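Ionic transporter y4hA
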Amino acid sequence: MIARLRAALLHWTGAVPVLAVVLLALTWGATLPVALVVLVSCFLAAAVLAAVHHAEVIAHRVGEPFGSLVLAVAVTIIEVALIVTLMADGGDKAASLARDTVFAAVMITCNGIVGLCLLVGALKRGVAVFNSEGTGAALATVATLSGLSLVLPNFTTTTPGPRFSTPQLVFAAIAALVLYGMFVTTQTLRHRDYFLPVTSSGEVIDTEDHARPPSRRAALTSLGLLALALIAVVGLAKGVSPAVESGVAAAGLPASVVGIVIALLVLLPETIAAVRAARRDRVQTSLNLGLGSAMASIGLTIPAVAVASVWLAGPLYLGLGATHMVLLALTIMVGTLTVIPGRATPLQGGVHLALLAAYIVLAVSP
């Protein structure tokens, strides 16, 4: 066992998470010069690739849809820790950080990951095929969570501004947890077949078509290294965030761009894993990752920041601006039209990517 563990650590996918966590411990809380920012960025990218590798090992061991759920939940839990930490350090400046990061995650996953995977899958075999029942249930949950958490605060009257009152925030947090819990139960227990890959003829694929699943010991080793890699990704992202904030301010860009950068960094492992699945004709797995990440981002972040707001001094702004509400409405409407047939051409992928591009352009130049 010790020999196998040593061999796993000597491989780059095992060494990188350990070295990245060591680098994180050495640089935590320090002001990084340019050279260290470059070094940290390199380890950040390597940790992302290592996280994707170990997530795929675990996914191969436990099968779908459990594999995509492991990565989505693991990334989101650590993303929540990053958001809360930055909010605690940022004071009033961080009042809208949770909203900006969550909305960026929704747009990146529902338009970026979904659009890219539909495009890759459709270009590979003409039409990207997926299960409309499972994907529709995921999209409906994302739409409900987004509306309750990011749109309603603009129209409540108990407190001024895009904010919930304390009872309203408690309700939003509980509703998010309950809906997310119900979805996970549906995905993994009651209707697991709705979230399995399907063939062009509609046949459910319940087995993998490549190598034998890894052993239980190898999967547990990958689980531990995945946790280390994700901690390193989020911690190192926090370390370079001052440089990102300075760069955003120096470029004269809105502060909300910082939320986009954080979401892009944190969601990079899921994006790579989703595209790889689409290239293997597992489009449903890609959609599970994309929509599952959006759902986890809202369903776990809103309750976490609701609890954190008890001791955080500044306000908590959750309501989106008018432009972002329009983009969210378009995303939900286009997503619904994409999901209903259970098939997508490259056009649908291009439409979703166009919405992501519009979001980024309007974030940079509102």
